[in-house]
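Handout, section 3.2

Students often ask what a structure token actually looks like in practice. Rather than define it abstractly, here is a full record for Thioredoxin family protein. The first block is the sequence as you would receive it.
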Amino acid sequence: MRILTALITAVVITATSYLPGIAATMGEDGLHKQPWFTITFKDMAEDIQAASEEGKRLVVIFEQRGCTYCRQMHEKLFSDPEVTDFIKEHFMVVQYNMFGDEEVIDLDGEELTEKTAARKWGYVFTPTIVFLPEEVPEDGSVSEVAVATMPGLFGKWTFLNMFRWVHEKGYEGEEHFQKYHARIYNELREEGRIDSE
């Protein structure tokens, strides 16, 4: 009986270790949703101000229906507490549909839709993650004032380190993100926390 129980336990552990991350909720627009995403009127100045009042930074994520990389971001990265806990503590995240029709008001006051905003700002990949300044800038559009942009899907440590670099205002210093990421990555390897990205 003990052997049978041990075998069943081993099979269950092995099978569950290969399951993908927890699936995100799917919205009517075909985009994966996280309960901690913030729903706003997509007025960029108001959103930057609202994030600032919470002691956070505004992040905009462009996604699209059927995007395999977006799904992987939700299932693999946003199911990892180390990633999501850091993001939720320091950032207010607003989701945009690359081909959506919801109204967007750019920082320069221009009224757009999500899809025309994506075109105006030059974002063509999904996911694209856009990091905005701490305070509402005096002039410029989103693409002109963004402090960093992450186009596409990356592994956990590149992804998380970009959020850390922005939180630490690395864009104001001399250490380029790639140098920052390499330094943090090597420190994590030396601590035995990672084998590879």
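Discussion prompt for tutorial groups: The helical segments are 2-17, 44-53, 68-77, 81-90, 114-121, 142-145, 156-167, 177-190. How would you have guessed this from the sequence alone?
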